[in-house]
From TrEMBL, chain A:
It catalyses: aldehydo-D-ribose 5-phosphate + D-glyceraldehyde 3-phosphate + L-glutamine = pyridoxal 5'-phosphate + L-glutamate + phosphate + 3 H2O + H(+); L-glutamine + H2O = L-glutamate + NH4(+). Belongs to the glutaminase PdxT/SNO family. It comes from the Bacteria. Pfam families: SNO (PF01174). SUPFAM superfamilies: Class I glutamine amidotransferase-like. This is Pyridoxal 5'-phosphate synthase subunit PdxT. GO terms for molecular function: glutaminase activity; pyridoxal 5'-phosphate synthase (glutamine hydrolysing) activity; transferase activity. Pathway: Cofactor biosynthesis; pyridoxal 5'-phosphate biosynthesis. It comes from Bifidobacterium psychraerophilum. L-glutamine binds at G49, E50, S51, R107, I134, R135. GO terms for cellular component: cytosol; glutaminase complex. Keywords: Glutamine amidotransferase, Hydrolase, Lyase, Pyridoxal phosphate, Transferase. CDD domains: GATase1_PB. Its EC number is 4.3.3.6, 3.5.1.2. The gene is pdxT.
UniProtKB/TrEMBL annotation, chain B:
D-ribose 5-phosphate binds at D29, G158, G219, G240, S241. The keyword Plastid does not apply. Its EC number is 4.3.3.6. It comes from Bifidobacterium psychraerophilum. Gene3D superfamilies: Aldolase class I (3.20.20.70). Pfam families: SOR_SNZ (PF01680). CDD domains: pdxS. GO terms for biological process: amino acid metabolic process; pyridoxal phosphate biosynthetic process; pyridoxine biosynthetic process. The keyword Lyase applies. Residues 13-217 form the PdxS/SNZ N-terminal domain. D-glyceraldehyde 3-phosphate binds at R170. One of its GO terms (molecular function) is pyridoxal 5'-phosphate synthase (glutamine hydrolysing) activity. This is Pyridoxal 5'-phosphate synthase subunit PdxS. Pathway: Cofactor biosynthesis; pyridoxal 5'-phosphate biosynthesis.
Length: 195, 297
């Protein structure tokens, strides 16, 4: 059966993620309110955007506790940029949100828009991946439960912990499907076949 | 290898990407660090730093220019979200100043007094991104050809009257649908009519949309206005005078953010519209002396 992914669609680049997963044959549904979480979802995707906006709307729209519980109970989640910030247990100089993943994150770590950049780097288990960083954070350190998947210039830019996958870059902005495929194959489909 | 060595020169793509990250959000005009914090706390996805909000620019008259860099720096320090600022149409030195300030987005804006009545800024010469206003597809593609990486409607600023933003959004999308339906061999004549480069027109034809993100701007004052613009195809909303000229800015800003995210939910828009206090008084289109949308075509 086709997996159904809930893409948080409060603000940011959610349509881009939907298009990427669509190309891989997965179905997506937009999550804009608490009732959207009532569906039988196989995973959650937290897109890039502004984490302060998304974090506030999660609370204002009454979805925060539900979503946190789903992820804490093992629902696979893929967070990119702002999504990574939402998942982090520790944020330097900033508020935490869902706080489920053992890592410390630095916001706007490369500065303002003039610091945004593109590069390519190796991601463990995935290969050489194009990476677009837009006012991006990076991961200062991960806790014991989390594994580093990629570094750029010495800084951690991708990591995973159980069924949580995060990148500080935006795989949804390039044509390369490998990060999305990795999430589907190793976290979503494996969990379904194991269940 | 250091990050700088790995960087590509494709700033334009990165600048279009930042606009993609703002989608579905509300960009708010602010004049002080305190207002910027209120906007950020209310869920703004970016702020536009300017000395006077459009309603006051309109009331004060005279020449309106780029804001004091000191004030812009103050706002950059106060918030973590992107900070935008306006330059006068054609004033390429104001744009140089803003790039030197490490601004996140420059708005080459008809809200300020134009510095050049013929030429827009050659935006391809800058590393920072530009957003420009457009009433129709021709204006949009000319601005994009000049290097704009984001487009917004030129709804009449500082009026609280949404009619022009609606007109521009409808016209833009009507023209996009028309271009998408043309035969390939009809694109050359259409490009001539619209006075735009044919390669940009072909991109619109092939993709059925502008090559950059398109926001609504001008006259948005209520949650219902925001939802209206989103339902008409805007990918996000600028709110200028509508918030800090109203009775309770924080509450109104929060309500507009929620209505923008859930613009298709009639119950939610109804709920957040309750008890917001005074909206900005507003001026009707027919009552204003200067039509700013006529600046810069």
């Amino acid at each position: 059966m086709t997996p159904l992914l809930g893409v948080l669609a409060l603000q940011g680049a959610f349509a881009e993620h939907e298009a990427m997963f669509g190309k891989l044959g997965a179905a997506t549904v937009e999550i804009r309110q608490s009732r959207d979480l009532d569906q039988q979802l196989d995973a959650i995707v937290l897109p890039g955007g502004e984490s302060t906006v998304q974090g506030k709307l999660l609370r204002d729209l009454g979805m925060f506790d539900r979503l946190r519980e789903l992820i804490a109970n093992g629902l696979p989640v893929f967070g990119t940029c702002a999504g990574l910030l939402l998942l982090a247990k520790h944020v330097e100089d900033g508020d935490t949100h869902l706080a489920v993943m053992d890592m410390t994150v630095k916001r706007n770590a490369y500065g303002r828009q003039l610091g945004s950049f593109f590069t390519r780097a190796e991601v463990k288990g995935v290969g050489d991946v194009p990476m677009t960083f837009i006012r991006a954070p990076y991961i200062e350190s991960v806790g014991e439960g989390a594994e580093v998947l990629a570094r750029v210039d010495g800084h951690i830019v991708a990591a995973q912990q159980n069924a949580m996958l995060v990148t500080s870059f935006h795989p949804e902005l390039n044509d390369d499907l490998s990060m999305h495929r990795y999430f589907l194959d190793t976290m979503v489909l494996r969990r379904r076949s194991g269940a | 290898m250091g990050i700088l060595a790995l960087m590509t020169n494709d700033r334009y793509e990165l600048n279009k990407n930042l606009a993609q990250m703002l989608k579905g959000g509300v960009i708010m005009d602010v004049t002080t660090p305190e207002q910027a914090e209120i906007a950020q706390d209310a869920g703004a996805c970016a702020v536009m730093a300017l000395e006077r909000i459009p309603a006051d620019i309109r009331a004060a008259g005279g020449v309106s220019r780029m804001s004091d860099p000191k004030m812009i720096r103050g706002i950059q320090k106060a918030v973590s979200i992107p900070v935008m600022a306006k330059v006068r149409i054609g004033h390429f030195v104001e744009a140089q100043v803003l790039q030197a300030l490490d601004i996140d987005y420059i708005d080459e804006s008809e809200v300020l007094t134009p510095a050049d009545d013929v030429y827009h800024i050659d935006k391809t010469q800058y590393s920072v991104p530009f957003v420009c206003g457009a009433k129709n597809l021709g204006e949009a593609l000319r601005r994009i050809a000049e290097g704009a990486s984001m487009i917004r409607t030129k709804g009449e600023p500082g009026t609280g009257d949404v009619v022009q933003a609606v007109r521009h959004m409808r016209e833009m999308n009507r023209q996009i649908r028309e271009v998408a339906g043309l035969r390939e061999d009809e694109l050359f004549e259409k490009a001539k009519q619209l006075e735009v480069p044919v390669d940009l027109l072909r991109s619109v034809h092939d993709n059925g949309r502008l090559p950059v993100v398109n926001f609504a701007a001008g006259g948005v004052a209520t949650p219902a206005d925001a939802s209206l613009m989103m339902q008409l195809g805007a990918e996000g909303v600028f709110v200028g005078s509508g918030i800090f000229k109203s009775g309770d800015p924080a509450q109104r800003a929060t309500a507009i953010v929620q209505a923008t995210t859930n613009y298709q939910d009639w119950d939610l828009v109804a709920r957040v519209s309750e008890g917001l206090g005074e909206a900005m008084v507003g001026i009707n289109e027919g009552e204003i002396a200067v039509l700013m949308a006529e600046r810069g075509k």
